[in-house]
Amino acid sequence: EGTLRTATQEERDRAIQIAFPVRGRTIFPSSFFKPENLHNALQRCRYSYVLDKVCVQYDPDHPEFLRITKEIYDYILERMEFDALRGTRHFGSMAFYLSLCHREYELVLDMLERKLIVDVMDYIRLHRKIHSQEGSKGSLSKPLGYDKKNFEKLMGLYMKRITGNRKKQAEKMVESLLEAGLPEIIKENLSQRELIDSYLKLETNVY
């Protein structure tokens, strides 16, 4: 009829894909992303596979991208299956999402249980930056090194913001790590990180 109007999200997506095709992206989204099919994939723990498909089909600011990734991260959080994404490109996004929503505690605890001291120190520092705690009283003005003293300082600042059973659980975990020989654990963490960094640099040079 000739009436001008703003294109719907679906119309816009189709037009952009036709004009500027993205490899692997379909003009019409797959039924795979429908709630019932998505839930079936999550029950089978295909988290990384689903996230890979979402990254191809949608841009990061697309409403469907946000809906689906949120559902996946919430599902993983509910089941404490963080390790399913560790080592993939999606782990950082999940960690950022949980921190942004103030739901980072379970991931912090998971890192402590796995003795990933270097990771938990980085994550708590990130959490403080996200929520602008770095400029508050008692904040960390300079980057901390990875050692026993700085670990205790970071955990002390973090535990000021948690209460009840969560705080008791975290305190107990920190105490057990100190008894297990924290310096050696940190040394091993750093060695593993250096090994991973070397591997990634090698892969980059190959390609």
TrEMBL record:
Superkingdom of origin: Eukaryota
Listed InterPro entries: Ribosomal_mS22 (IPR019374)
A GO molecular function held by the record: structural constituent of ribosome
Any one Gene Ontology cellular component term annotated for this protein: mitochondrial small ribosomal subunit
Protein name from the UniProt record: Uncharacterized protein
Natural source organism: Magallana gigas
